[in-house]
Each structure stands twice: as C-alpha cells, then as structure tokens.
C-alpha cells in the first residue's frame, strides 16, 4: 500500500533490495560471515583513529560542559524524533499493538513532555519498543548477510546497512520538516550520539583500546546483541525464507 501510494519510494528501494540480495551469503545466526574482513579491519582502524582524535575528546567536552539534565533532554528530544519511523516499521511488520503503544508514547512525550525534552511516557509506563527497517527486513525474511564495518557508523551487517538507508528514505520526520529546519534534526542527533559516547565511555574504551583484538571484540558484541534484539536464538537459522537463493533462479 505504501509503495503504491508513493511510487518514487518504490523506485528508490528496488535497487537497494536487489543489491542486498546479491551481496549476502549463507550463514546461521550463531556463526560469523565476514568475507570483507580485510577491508573491514582497515575501516575499523580508521574509525578508531577518528574516535581517538575527534569523537572521544568531543564527547568528553560535551559531557563536562553540559549538565546531565541538559544532555538527557537532548537525548530525549532526539529519541522522540525517531518515534514516527519506529511506528512506521511497526506497521510494516504488522505489529499493530507495538504501533499503538509507540504512537501513545509519541503523543504523550510530544505534549506533556514539551516536544520530547522530558520522557514522561516511560515514567508513565509507556517505554519505547524499538524497531527499525533492519528488523523489518528480518521479519520479511531477509537474511543477516555479511558483517560490515561502516566509516564513522561502526559495526553493521548487509541487512542492517540497507535497513539504515531505507530508514533515511522513509523517515516521516524527514518528509515533514522543512529543509531549513532539518539542520536542527541533524544537530540534535549528532549531539545525542556524543552524549551516548560520553555515557558509555568506559565500555567503549575497553573495547576499542584495551582488547587484544578490538575488531573481533566489536564484531562479536554487535552480532550477539543484534541477534538478541531480533529474538534469534543461538544456533537458530536466520531466516526461514532464503531470498538470496531465489534471486539467482
């Protein structure tokens, strides 16, 4: 229905989905499929240098200059901006209960929470039920694909990488906000990311700078956490529908 109403979206998504099918390979959820390890390790080293030179000191300054209440407000506002996209993915997954729950959260935080600066919904028993287009692709039957480390963004997979691209294309906020105001959305997201980097400094530093092999450690933690989020048990096949085999028939 969405594709019929918005044909330009359909045209934008088709090459992404075809390339997603072509790039992926067979794997089970308990294994690691990393055919691009050499390139990924190079990207990982670049990311480590960028973190050491730019992100780590910037997040430290951000955390020390701004009070915790202000940082929390920025994070809450950024999270509230992501809610329309989450609701859209709930609908694409036919998770109507989650869509209603997250819509209620959006309404409560936007109104009583002053545009999302305050997370009134969580205190009122309406915590976020996260979702994204990577999860939607999982529900639709797309396999995890290859492990990929993206510049600046870090660990990902073929499926989640394309899911992130589609999230940007379909994000309702991006279509509703006037172009001159999009810089505010981008700046808020960047500030929220700095706040997260500051909040989890010890954990991130231990992975990037204290591990014997920071690349392998980051890869393992990402895949385990992502599979847990998607409800994939250890040794369970991901997924039942192998679209990659059919793409070559």
Largest sheet: number of strands, sense, barrel closure: 2 strands, antiparallel
* Number of E-type strands: 2
With helices defined by DSSP (H or I, 4 residues minimum), what is the helix count? 13
Whole-number radius of gyration?
Answer: 19 Å
State the share of residues found in helices, binned by percent: 55-70%
Return the domain count. 1
Task: Note the run of SSEs as H and E.
Answer: HHHHHHHEEHHHHHH
Report low-confidence residues grouped into runs of 5 or more. 1-15, 17-24, 239-249
Q: Quick check: average pLDDT?
A: 86
Shape assignment: globular
Record keyword descriptors for this entry:
disordered N terminus; two-stranded antiparallel sheet; mainly alpha; 249 residues
């Amino acid at each position: 229905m969405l594709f019929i109403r918005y044909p330009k979206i359909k045209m934008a998504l088709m090459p992404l989905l075809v390339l997603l099918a072509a790039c992926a390979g067979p794997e089970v959820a308990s294994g690691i499929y990393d055919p691009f390890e050499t390139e990924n390790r190079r990207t990982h080293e670049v990311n480590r240098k960028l973190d050491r030179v730019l992100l780590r000191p910037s997040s430290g300054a951000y955390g020390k200059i701004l009070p915790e209440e202000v940082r929390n407000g920025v994070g809450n506002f950024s999270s509230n901006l992501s809610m329309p996209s989450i609701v859209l993915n709930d609908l694409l997954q036919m998770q109507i209960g989650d869509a209603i729950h997250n819509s209620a959260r959006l309404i409560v935080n936007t109104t009583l929470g002053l545009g999302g600066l305050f997370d009134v919904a969580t205190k009122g028993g309406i915590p976020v039920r996260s979702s994204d287009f990577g999860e939607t692709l999982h529900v639709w039957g797309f396999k995890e694909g290859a492990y990929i480390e993206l510049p600046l963004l870090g660990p990902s997979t073929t499926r989640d990488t394309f899911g992130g691209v589609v999230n940007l294309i379909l994000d309702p906020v991006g279509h509703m906000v006037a172009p001159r105001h999009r810089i505010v959305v981008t700046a808020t997201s960047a500030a929220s990311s700095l706040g997260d980097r500051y909040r989890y400094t010890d954990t991130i530093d231990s992975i990037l700078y204290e591990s014997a092999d920071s690349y392998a450690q980051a890869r393992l933690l990402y895949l385990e956490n992502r599979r847990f989020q998607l409800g994939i048990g250890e040794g369970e096949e991901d997924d039942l529908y192998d679209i990659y085999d059919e793409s070559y028939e």
